[in-house]
Structures are given as C-alpha cells and as structure tokens.
Specification:
Radius of gyration: 21 Å
Number of helices: 12
Structural class: alpha+beta
Number of strands: 17
C-alpha cells in the first residue's frame, strides 16, 4: 500500500494463516481526547496526505458532529483512531489512519481497536471504512467479516454537470432552475459572510419547523450548523446564499476537501420558493467551486426523501463504505441502533 510501510503484509502472512481469528497484541489502552478546533492541524496531518474523497475524513464533520463526546480521537504508534459514541448506537471506530509514509503494524492497529471495544463490553465494529483503508484492512485482516453500509455512501458528482445541468438526465433540474428564474428574476446570489449568520439560523429554524418527522440526527443538527457558521474561517469553509427582495431564502456551506474535490456540508432553503434547491445548488457550484472537478454532497442517511433527491442528480460515482467485524453481523438486530423502533 503506497504511503505506509505495513508490517502486516509479507512477514505476517504465515502468522495470519495460523491464527485467522485471534491475534495477540500489546495493551489496547487508549487516551482519548475531544475533537476541538486546536486539533485541526494534528488530525489533518493524518487524514489529508491520503487524498481520500470520503466526507467522514473532513475535520469539519468531526468537529461539528462530534461535540459532547460523540467523537473522540487517540494517537498510538503513528496511528490515529476516531471513536464514535452516539446515542442508541454501540460504540464503534472508524478505520485506523496511519501516519502517511510511516512504518506501522496495521493488523495490530485494527485489533487494538477491536480489543478496546471488547473490553468496554460492546460488539466490535469498525465502520464507514472506505478506500484506501478498505484495501488495507482486507489485506491485514482477511478473516474479518465485511458488510456494506450503503446508508453512509457519499454521492459524488461532476462539477460541470451540476453547473450546466446539461443532458437529458438533468432536464428536470434544468426546468426547475428556469422556473425559478422566471418567477424570481430579481434574485441575488451572495458569498456567505459572518453578518448573515443570524439570517441563516432563522431560515434553518423555519425549515426544521416545517419537517413532518425529525430524526435523531436532525434533532442535533442545529448545533452542528451553528458551529459551522460561527467557525467558517477557522474551518476553511466557503458558503453562498440566495436573497429575494433582500431576504435570505437559501444558504449552503462547503470546503475544499482535496484539490480536485469540494465537499458540501450544509444546504437549507425555504421550499416555498419554487426551484430554490436546484438554484442554490447550481449557484454555489458556479461561484465557489470553479477550480474543482468533483462535488461530494455526502450521504443520504437512509432517509428516503434525501436519497431520491441525491439520486436525481445522477452521481458520477459513490464513495463506498463498509463495516468490518470479527463475526458475521448481517442478521444481528441493534447494530445500527434503530432497527427495533
């Protein structure tokens, strides 16, 4: 695997054959810390060099969603560990992230995480595993069971397509934008500035009140949106907004995750303005994403309406994510935290 000298490859193959399920490791103790703004450089020193396109590896996502102990990090033996502790979901880890270019025993890193989860009494799972860590885990721990977690797969689009909406597949979206332009020709697109934060939150609160059902994630989303807005400069975020008659009616916020890829974190709008969502999507891409090739609009969380909307833009690819576990969990209830509700 380029970028890391993995001791689990050649000299560990015989050991793996002899002992496919259990592995002896040193103490699986960790010292976990909250993901705070002052840790951005540290965490990105692990994540950025890999060039991964997965939204999970955005420091912004860790920071805005990981408050109150929901996400914590630890360093050990040139490896970064991210631990998740969300309500209704058993504690789990993301794939261990080695320091790029350093020599690590990746098999040991994986089993340190597994042993930690065993010690605290939860079913060991390593989730949201995407490339290149998917391939590293397969090679290091071929005995682990793998299960796709498609509710977490990221939707990735060609920037040019989102801007021009050209082609038969995007005909409906193009019509929505044209309808918006015919109804609200006096609209104005503006780059998001701190002075607009109060208006953004007012719009968010209006949007949330109009939702028929509020998921557990949406119940906590307001705090995450506020954190992102209040720390735009520190997090390297760039946003855009649409105004009609000098009133903010849509806003979006994203970041340059990789030189070729923009990651969109937040997009909210007043749906009473016909075509507003296709319009803010197009205008943000047109004005703030000219230097990239791809746009990652994150996952659909298994929400049917969100899934339908994201598929309607016809992604050029999906960032696939998987769950690794020591035993087959495909028929086990409670792993995701909501199956029995």
């Amino acid at each position: 695997m380029p970028g890391v000298q993995c001791l689990c490859n050649n000299q560990k193959k015989e050991e793996t054959k002899k002992n496919m399920i259990e592995t002896k490791t040193s103490s699986a103790s960790f010292q976990f810390y909250p993901i705070t703004l002052d840790k951005k450089a540290l965490i990105e020193s692990y994540t950025k060099p890999w060039g991964a396109e997965c939204s999970d590896l955005s420091f912004t996502n860790m920071f805005i969603w990981g408050t109150d102990g929901k996400m914590e990090y630890a360093e050990k033996d040139n490896v970064l560990y991210i631990k998740m502790d969300f309500k209704r979901v058993p504690v789990y880890f993301w794939a261990p992230i080695p320091k790029y270019g350093e020599t690590v025993n990746y098999r040991k890193a994986v089993y340190d995480a597994i042993d930690y989860m065993k010690k605290i009494g939860v079913e060991p799972t390593i989730r949201s595993v995407s490339s290149p860590f998917y391939e590293m885990m397969q090679e290091a721990c071929p005995e682990l069971f793998i299960q796709p977690t498609d509710i977490a797969w990221d939707y990735v689009y060609e920037r040019e397509k989102l801007e021009t909406l050209s082609g038969k597949k995007l005909h409906a979206k193009r019509n929505h934008v044209n309808k918006f332009l015919s109804l609200y020709s006096d609209y104005e697109y503006r780059k998001l500035e701190p002075s607009m934060i109060d208006d953004c939150i007012a719009l968010y609160d209006q949007w949330k009140e109009e939702k028929d059902e509020i998921s557990a994630e949406l119940k906590e989303e307001r705090q995450s949106v506020l954190l992102a807005l209040n720390h735009m400069e520190d997090l390297g975020l760039v946003g855009g907004a649409i105004f009609i008659e000098n009133k903010l009616v849509a806003f979006t916020l994203g970041e340059r995750l990789q030189p070729h890829l923009q990651l969109v974190h937040i997009e909210k709008a007043d749906a009473s303005f016909e075509g507003i969502y296709p319009m803010i999507n197009q205008q943000y891409v047109k004005n703030e994403c000219m230097e990239v090739e791809l746009i990652n609009r994150e996952e659909d969380m298994g929400i049917e309406g969100m899934r339908k909307a994201k598929r309607a833009y016809h992604p050029v690819k999906m960032i696939e994510k998987y769950m690794f576990s020591p035993r087959d969990l495909s028929q086990v209830k409670g792993i995701w935290g909501w199956e029995e509700e």
